[in-house]
Amino acid sequence: MSKEIADNKHLQEEPPEDLTREQLLGMYRRMRLIRGFEDRAKRHFEAGEIAGFLHLSQGQEAVPVGVCAALRADDYITSTHRGHHDVIAKGCDVKYMFAELYGRANGYCKGKGGSMHIADFSQGIIGATGIVSGSLPTAPGIALSIKMRGTDQVVVCFFGDGATAEGGFHEALNLSALWQVPIVFVCQNNLYGLSQPWQETAYQCELARRVSTYNIAAQCVDGMDALAVYQAAKQAVERARAGDGPSFIEAKTYRFLGHYVGDPALYMPKEERELWRQRDATLKLGRQLRAWGYLTEDQDAQMADAVAQELDDAIAFAKSSPEPSPEEALTDVYVHFDYLGNPLEDADDGQKAALKQAVQGQRQPTKADAEGWREISYRDALREALREEMLRDERVFLMGEDIADPFGSAYKVTLGLSPEFGTDRVRQTPISELGFVGAGVGAALTGMRPIVELMYIDFSTLPMDQIANQAAKIRYMSGGQAQVPLIIRTQGGMGRSSAAHHAQSLEAWFVHTPGLLVAMPSTPYDAKGLLKTAIRLNDPVIFIEHKLLYNTEGPVPEEEYMIPFGVADVKREGTDCTVVATSRTVLMALQAAEILAQEGISVEVVDPRTLFPLDLETIVASVKKTSRLVVAHESPERGGVAAEMIAQIAEAAFDYIDAPIQRVCAPSVPPPFARHLEEFIIVNETHIADRVRRLVRGEI
Partners of 247 in the beta sheet? Predict the structure, then answer.
């Protein structure tokens, strides 16, 4: 315990001038409500009425109450798995919180989030996360959104001391300082991560000193004194509203109980626990109010009774609330749309089918000989889509490494956009994938439409938490409150001797993750149309390009058009065998079809264009016509998207298939460097033609 905050028994002689009696009583009542909420939550959890895990914050109430007293209703907070006190301090209603803990339909998140994931977007509570440091990269994105929208809101990012050893902590600090965004980082240093003492996790250095090296205003305060926290928070919030950038508050506090309910906390010395209990912040504020004449003993007792009644009513409300229907488990994964961004609520099946039929009827010419069409590159088609959507919607902005001129991104897709739109909307980032993808999530959650570029899909391993645990899940965990209109543009694929860290095809990872949409365009026409659609959708999209496609050319109309997600394209019609191929492998399949046509074998080539949603109907219709199927992609065979497609096709069209379904994929090895090794494993037209030929001839 720091010497300067070792004792909080001393009471201020005079009440603070900037807080009224009503405000001070409100803070005290809120602290008592938090303590009572957790007392009851613990009791009902131990009785078996509440499931899952329960992480209590008893002892830490002064920190969020002091901070939130300095906030406005329209400000934002993010929180952690130990976040009951944070969200109640910001304004959450305890009856809906208990309903959520009980897993009831009218809980804040419809029973889909539970104790660790409380969210109320209507009050700026952007959700707690069960991942340590999970909200740290997201919060600077919320602050960036505030700055870009031109409001004077502030975001407070609450987290524990354990998060400070994570990379996300440092990336969030760096980006916030670099962008000078209105954010207040509040570390509730309760001296333990899980069981490991704080002193064993950082080498002899106070957090505030470490943070100050980022040129962020940082201070350490007594987290057992609500008024001390308030004064620090007020200063930090005023600084943020004035445009003076981020601040950091380390609040030294203590959790009176173990890491979770059921943890005996044997690692916490009894003498230490007793010392901190004597410094109980709630009791101190009560003594302070009585000393100032703001609260009598009778009024204190009346407040205790009122809080107890509110909590009893909340428990009764939760217990009497309905269970969610089983079907509710399947909702809130995606926003309802027709994959062009239009709501589906009023569309019937016939209207949906008509839309799909109309899109499939829009056949592109094989060459740019039709009026209003021209030949452009895949790269230019993508750039046109970005430019058109940035002109159409000022909320659209780009973010990533080296995307501004003169470099214009690794494959020059964004070249020329920064002079036109400025560096706020074509935003360069440090090499900080976890940080800027997380910032994209935060910006998307609060009104912006970011397009984040990951230079190589291999680098998606670094921000995978923000992609798979935050962007993909926050809508579901919040019970449908959130929308995440985030695009992650990236590229993969072999063919340039880039070796195992710059040439992978990882689309199967993202298809496997509920909450994500996945597109893999193979032509300039598809690239532009799908990207424009992706930007208008309200779900996170993984938009995967292939490094060997950027220079390929094809016909693209001059007039605006969009291609819906979930509508496959029959690139070539045939009768003897269906080849379903993705990305650059589509071009290989078309070349294979040309080779086989010379032998009298007619091949139909189907490009799904989006891997999720997958247009199974079009693929099955083709298989029913040809009775044979080959699925080809460049990624490794084991666990690849071909396996999933084949499973679905076999279920839907088994009686129509006359030969074993085949996969033509890379072997399950990392991409090699040497050209002849890479050429040996990469899927090409010869591999596809040979497999189809043998299948049609009955040799398989």
Answer: 184, 217
